[in-house]
Amino acid sequence: MHWHQKEIKEIIAELAVTPQGLTMEEAARRLLEHGPNELIETKKKTLAMMLLDQFRDFMILVLIAAAIISGVIGEVTDTIAIIVIVLLNAVIGFVQEYRAEKAMALLKKMSEHSALVLRDGLPATVPAAQLVPGDVVLLEAGKIVPADMRLIEVARLKIEEANITGESLPVEKVIDRLADEHLPLGDRKNMVYKGTIVTYGRGQGVVVATGMATELGRIATLLQDEDEVKTPLQKRLATFGRKLALVVLAICAIIFGVGLLRGEAPLLMLLTAISLAVAAIPEALPAVVTISLALGARKLVRQNTLIRKLPAVETLGSVTYICSDKTGTLTQNRMTVEEIYADGTLHTGDELGTGERIELLTALALSNDAALDALGRPIGDPTEVALYDIAKLKGFDKKDLEKVFPRVAEIPFDSERKCMTTFHEIPADAPFLIRRAGSPPPLAKGGGGGFVSLTKGAIDVLLDKSAKVLTHDGLQAVDSGELEQVNERMSADGLRVLGMAMRIWETLPTDLSPELVEKELIILGLVGMMDPVREEAQEAVRLCKSAGIKPVMITGDHPLTATTIASRLGILEEGSKAVLTGRELEALTLEEFEERVEEIRVYARVAPEQKLKIIKALQDKGQFVAMTGDGVNDAPALKRADIGIAMGINGTDVSKEAAHMILLDDNFATIVKAVKEGRRIFDNIRKFIKYTMASNSGEIWTIFLAPFFGLPIPLLPIHILWINLVTDGLPGLALAVEPAEKGIMERPPRHPQEKIFAGGLGIHILWVGLLMGGVALATQAWSLRTGHAHWQTMVFTVLCLSQMGHVLAIRSGRESLFSQGLFSNKPLTGAILLTFALQMATIYVPQLQPIFKTEALTLGELALTLALSSLVFFAVEIEKWLKRRR
């Protein structure tokens, strides 16, 4: 049996404790037995281990090898550039891993406080770490609950449990035994949990679990057990790097061997093969990826998204499911009165006129514990604030009314009665409250007009306490059937329904016991409230669906409320049954759940570890999952998700540290904007791979095929390394800022298992590389046949400038450059002009000619070179035209 199922006397007997608490000696003995009430961290990586881990990636090892080779053959510039890129990536990776470790430290910080306990029958303040099972702890407003406890005494005790259970409202606590074994944590109202906060009242509890045995400890265990999942890009680049290195080494070995067989100088062939190997490795790729992600992260900050782990930016583009909390993310996190029932008529909050339902609106304003903060905004229980807001909106200001009808007594709300009552004095000149409620009582002594009691609570409770209902025609007998029917209809719409009743008194009762006062009431009406959906969330959900992303709502709320909100947002289709409760989920094995998981759109009343179950099930089905969360209980799920999204306004520090990104406005629509940015970034990284690999393959084909056509080696090592330097550098980096393509959110997400060369990328690289090589070899063959002595400079220039034409053509996968506009990516235009100027300098600046082994081209040779260089551009434009026609 769980602790919530046991009677208080059973708990006291089982834990061998008295209501006076433990003795000091017994507490010390139990501390030795159970250990301190602390969260224990698993063995952590040292800072040196974290740093070394950054150099284990295969692509990074290939780059380090390329840097060493460049240094050996005297290309110091390349060596320095590669080392800078490798170090930059290592620092970024190290910082991200170090920050992830901080989530556990913040979780521990939540439990570093003191507790007021009974020891030897006397209150004593002890460090929370010294609490043991069996300790009797005193709780009061403002205190953090120091351990998991079964309550034995409460006085209007309310606990803020959002951190642990996800429940958005403070929970009223009880001491009664709860029989259901499978109650979710949020419904175990006779328990309090370590790390939650007392918001109201006071109480006493017996400690039943400490340290790692608490619910917070279970979350800490989950957090430490869950490994972060590698992003799609990290997985793809790791595979790409391994395959590329093997292919390049094989090709270079073949070129070296063929050169030797043809009688070329061994040193020249060795340098050519090594230069080609260095050129073929896209060393700018990690820099382009990092810069693309960093620029994307910077742009996202302006859209209220803070990226904590850079690879998360790209991951957004792969997301197939967005699992979102309801409160505050899909809704406004502000209870609002949606419907009011009075005098036989159901009104929306907007429809109700200011002159109607005077008694009901006055009662909503007066029987209300909401207060105003320093800025004049209402604060307090969300339900009270909603009632305050509707009354004030209709002209019934609590502050003004309390001057006329001062509160003189009250019977506070408690969860057993399910109602509260306030008493107000009625001045002689203010009879409107009782105008239709029968004759006014005789004036009380002192000239007053008597008193009114206002009772607010669940309508099923008020019906038992009421005799009459106030209508336009005066007092009528209560029609319980009609009011119950209205209550059921409002509840079915997901509204939280409260009834309001009153009673007139000639004098203030001397005995304010509820059973004597809360009877013979007059019902004034019913009020239905809900946390309304964010307007922008509806459009965001529609956009998700058009982008092939499935939005899923996860909430601690009642299934009816969750279903209503999901239907309004369009997450649930009309008539859909895709709703699962936490209890139903618990009854399913992982295998059974995986059969259904892709169809479920709403999860209600879920526990923290169930979020993990949802994520794992979706990931096992090959889906990429974004998960939002704000509580401590969400941290393990945020860490496990492909992209964990914490709330910036209402999120805990623990959830923020475990997440990959933070929503600064807690808004679902912001996630969708971030997905669009993620897609743009991945598109641009693919464009860079398309560009650099086609360029590199063009150089390889040129040197590889030349011997088969009986041509001399077309390029010297210096030419290969120069082309590699000027073309891979600035033009490639400028692709990172390419704007999003049209219809980017109207296509399905990339399949998570999709290879980096999917979608025709590999074929494009192959044919464009062959075309570049073919044009270069054709230039060489024609120049040699016609006796042009500058043939090597022409081949060098054709290869360099062909790559500039290619980078312009691949700015879009479908749209023509002529419709995009040459200046819609100004950094790229600038980079191309700079590359052209530098290439011309190697040809025409006399001091550079001996270094680059070039000769000045004639005007005719230059014109021919430029014309041949443009062939690749027009070929790719034709390819895009054919795609558009298809």
Number of strands: 26
Quickly give the structural class: alpha+beta
* Oligomeric state, counting identical vs distinct chains: single chain
Radius of gyration: 36 Å
Helix content: 40-55%
SS element count, helices: 34
Instruction: Indicate the proportion of strand residues.
Output: 15-25%
How many strands, which pairing sense, and closed or not: the largest β-sheet? 9 strands, mixed
User: What is the rounded distance between the termini?
Assistant: 66 Å
Average pLDDT across residues?
84
**Form type:** elongated
Poorly predicted segments: 431-447
Features of this protein?
single chain, 886 residues, alpha+beta, nine-stranded mixed beta sheet, eight-stranded mixed beta sheet, 34 helices, 17% strand, elongated
Q: What's the structural blueprint in terms of helices and strands?
A:
Elements: H1 8-14, H2 24-34, H3 47-53, H4 58-72, H5 76-109, E1 114-119, E2 122-127, E3 136-140, E4 148-160, H6 162-165, E5 171-172, E6 191-192, E7 197-209, H7 215-225, H8 232-261, H9 266-280, H10 284-301, E8 305-307, H11 311-315, E9 321-325, E10 336-342, E11 345-348, H12 358-366, E12 371-372, E13 378-379, H13 382-393, H14 398-404, E14 407-414, E15 419-425, E16 451-457, H15 459-465, E17 466-471, E18 474-477, H16 480-492, E19 496-505, H17 514-517, E20 521-530, H18 535-546, E21 550-555, H19 559-569, E22 579-581, H20 582-587, H21 590-596, E23 602-604, H22 608-620, E24 625-629, H23 635-640, E25 643-647, H24 653-658, E26 661-663, H25 668-705, H26 717-728, H27 730-734, H28 761-785, H29 791-809, H30 817-820, H31 826-844, H32 849-852, H33 859-869, H34 871-885
Parallel strand pairs: 9-21, 9-24, 17-20, 21-23, 22-23, 24-25, 25-26
Antiparallel strand pairs: 1-2, 1-3, 3-7, 4-5, 4-6, 4-7, 8-26, 10-11, 10-20, 12-13, 14-15, 15-16, 16-19, 17-18, 19-20
Helix pairs in contact: 3-5, 4-5, 4-9, 5-10, 8-9, 8-25, 9-26, 10-25, 12-13, 18-25, 21-22, 25-26, 25-28, 25-29, 26-29, 28-29, 28-34, 29-31, 29-33, 29-34
